[in-house]
Sequence to fold (93 residues):
Amino acid sequence: MTIPAVDETQSALMTCTAESKPQLTLTLFRLSQSATEITDGIVKKDNSLEYRMEQVSREHAGDYKCTADNGYGSAVPNTATLLVRCKLFLYTF
Fold:
């Protein structure tokens, strides 16, 4: 799974692919304190999964994990980090 660094407010596309017979199931997770499955915005094709985020913010930054399972075994999960470039805010007191 590959994720290029993106600027805040741009869109980001994550793609995960795998090959298997029989047909496999791909699942995408956001890793934070615990793994949370992502279901909204997922487009699944034969052997791939796409997740598009519009208007990326610094809250989207972090690690994402893609898993594959064909009912006979699971592949080693692939993890990628989304880097979000954002403006620096300086607060004075």
Q: What stands out?
A: The beta strands are 6-7, 12-17, 25-31, 35-37, 42-44, 48-53, 62-69, 78-82, 84-85. The chain has no helices and nine strands.
